[in-house]
Structure formats: structure tokens, C-alpha cells
Amino acid sequence: MAAGLSLMLLLACSPKDNQPSPQPAKVIPTPVELIVGTDSISVNKLTNLPQKVSISEKDLLCKLGDQALTDWQLKSAYWMEIGKRRVKIVAADEEGVFYARQSLKMMASLDSMVTCCTILDWPRFQYRGVMLDESRHFQGKEFIYKQLEMMALLKMNRFHFHLVDNPGWRLQIDAYPRLTQFTAWRPVPYFWDWEINKIGGDFVDEGTPDAYGGYYTKKDIADILAFAAERHIEVIPEIEMPGHNYETRAAYPELACSLEDGGPSKRELCPGKESTYTFLENVLLEVFELFPNEYIHIGGDEAGKKSWAICPDCQARMKDEGLENVEELQSYMIRRMERFAHEHGKRIIGWDEILEGGLAPDATVMSWRGTKGGLKAIAEGHDVIFAPTHYCYLDHHQDPEQYHRAGRHLPLEKVYSFDPMQEKIAEEDAHHVLGIQGCLWTEHVLEAWHAEMQLYPRVFAIAETGWSPAEKKNWPDFEQRSSKFSKVARDWGYNVYVKPMTNVAP
Ligand SMILES: [Zn+2]
After folding, report:
1. Could you tell me the CA-to-CA distances from 146 to 118, 143, 228 in Å, in that order?
2. Known catalytic residue: 210?
3. pTM (two decimals)
4. What's the whole-number average pLDDT of the chain?
């Protein structure tokens, strides 16, 4: 009886005999509104359909009806109708057209037949990012292109480029050639062997046989920026200060505190010496020239301050500037560098340690030690990007059985469960939440295949949290979409982690 009823319902709902019922498009991130039509067309036909594109804010506003979007949402928003004879796209900006086409591309990748539909779509957050640490292990330009391509398909728009850190400087700076001629190279590939096991010594000159490392020339960076810009992705370089500067001190020892062997803090610049500021300003001038975007990340995290407490230059600076403790000395440096950035039309982002000792007036905080720092910054009227370790640190392993030195188990479901607004941020403060970022630190990630296994599919979850409305997020549905798209991505050559862990080096 029940089976007979089901069959009748199935027949009544089928648009045509022998054709499957219309299914909503299974794209990631899931769109704001999707109305499924009754027809289906083959992927081959879809990719050859004529596209009627209208770039008109007025036309888009008509499609949006009473939906009130912010300017940045409007820029990314699109309306798209996939019919049997043509695809119509309406957007206020090229960016919206680009995102419509990304939806189309993803739909075409998932099935041989695509159900006709109408989509109205825009992002929830303006910052939808991925961070890659290339200091610890260097992958190079082709790897970056490949990941930017995937980010674009997922409608992500910020690539945070962690270019400099203790184990290697990866960016050509003309004024300071030793940063790349010397401290971009180390004697052993594996960071852990170098950092913890102290194998082979510190750094070696470029050209030394078997030296491990590499760096981006200014031409490489220009190529990467052009590639990213075509995909509406902004590249945010990170130049770390005052901590995480072991490599900088190895290249230019005079940047350390004036103590024997630079003092007990081995990775910090001396914020007392005027020459440190000259160095940072000269580096930043070249960085500003290279990266045209508004934001620059200045790090600010995990600075050991023992040397500063005993360094005569640091003590003199504190006395002259009326600074009561070493936290205020760090804050002095960050504020001073923020002023410098402002003078050149730039704004700074820093890890949440920049809150300590007083936050620079216009700084944006990247909240990584949980969400507390982010909430404090919002309370003080600052913009925040959420990248909390327990949800967004993609160096943590995906498989409970996987032996991994880096951190804890961070499965896809947990990444997906994070909501940047979950802490009940007041409505009037919501605009301070710029968005979300997944961070891949590479202490234990030597090779490209491993980096991709850490990134995917968790970046899919970050993308959906960043783009889709909170009420549209649905774990069981996402899990299915993620699994389906993971197969496609693997066919394209991405080493997407599959449960249980089967990924091995090619
Ligand atoms: Zn000092």
C-alpha cells in the first residue's frame, strides 16, 4: 500500500517519463536562494549555451526586491537563470558575474545533467580567507596558482600569504639582499629537523648544494597578484614583527637587542633601536609598492620579551616614551608601524596579541587564540577576522587514527560548526566581523600533496561559513555535497583527504 502510494507520487512529480525529479544544485557554498525549474540539460549543452550578461545595479536591485544589501555585498551579488536555451546573469559588478560563473562551473562539474534553476546569491561576510605558511616549507608559484583557482571556485576572496618567519624569508627585498640570498635557505628540508633536532646548522647561502628553500622574486609576486586579481582574490602579505624574526636576525644581527648573543629572546627584533624602524620601514616600502591592496598583516604574535627588559636600547626607549612595561613597548612598535602604514594609504591586520599593551587605533584583529581576543577588539570598536585555532587551524589532523605531531583532531564537521557570529555579537557591532579564515601552518607539512590533504575538504567548510547565510547551513547536506565535490576535486588533481585516510604521497 505504502509502496503503491510512493509510486503514484513519484509519477505525479516526474516532469517527464524516465527523467529524474529536479534536484537542487549541489554547489559549495550553498546559495542564498535557489528555485529549481522542471527541465534539465546536459552539461555539454550547458557549457555551450549563450550567456546574456547584464551589469546593472538597477537591474540587480529589481531582482533583489526588498533585500537590503551593503555595498560590498551588492558588488559580489548575482542573479542567474539557467534555462534550456540560454543563461541569464544580472549583477551590479564584474565580481558578481564572476561568482555566477563559478556557480555554473561547479554545477557543471558535479553531474552530467544540470537542473534548470534561478539563483539569487550574495556573500554573508566580506572576508573569506585562506592563510598559507610558506616560511616553514616552501611550495612555489604553481602550487599557489592551483590553490587560488580552488579558492575562486569556492567564492573565497582573501589569500593571506605568510611569507616570512623564523625558518625562512620568502620575499625579494632589494634593500636587504641577505634575506633571500642567505635566510631563504637552510641545510635540511624538514622544519622539525632544523628547528627542534638542530640538524645541519642555521642557514646556508643560496646556491649551496642541497640547500632547501626558495623565495618569490618581485616578478613572481606580480604574476601571483595578477592571477589572483583575475579571480577577485586579494593577496595580503604578512611581514612579521617584532617576534618570529629569527631569520631576519640571522641575516642582519644588528637588529637584535644590544646584548651578548642578542639576549635571551632569540627571535625578536629590538624595538629600542631606531635602526630597527629604519629596516622595517624600508622593507614595508618595497612591500607596499609590490602589493597594491589596502591591508598588510604585520603579525605581532608570540613575541618573547625577556631581552627587552634588560636591553639598554629598549630601556632607553621605554623611558623616553613613558612606557611602563614591555607589553607597552610592543604596542609602541605596532602603533608606530600602523602610523607609517597609514601615511602610505595602508591599514594593518595583526594577530590578537596586538591587543596587549593597547591596540593601535585602526588595526584589524585576527582572532586566533579562541574568540576572546576578537570579542575584546569588537568591544573596543575594531574590525575582526575570526580564525580560532580549535576550528580554523588546518595544520591539525583530520583523521583520529592519523599520527601527527601538529595539535589536535579537527574533523570537517567541527570546522563547519563554527559561526563567526556565534558569540552573540550585538547587532550594532555585527559590521565589525569581517569574516573567517582557515590557516595552514606547515611545521609538519613538507610537500604539496600533504598541504592539499590538510586544506581539503576543510576549506570547503570555511568557504560555506564565509558565504552562505547561517540559516542555510546544514551539516548532513553539506557532508554529502562535500563528499561529492571532493571526488571531482580529486579528479582535477587535488589531494583531498578522504575518510578513512587513504591519501598517500603520489
Ligand atoms: Zn632591545
Report:
1. 30, 5, 11
2. no
3. 0.94
4. 92
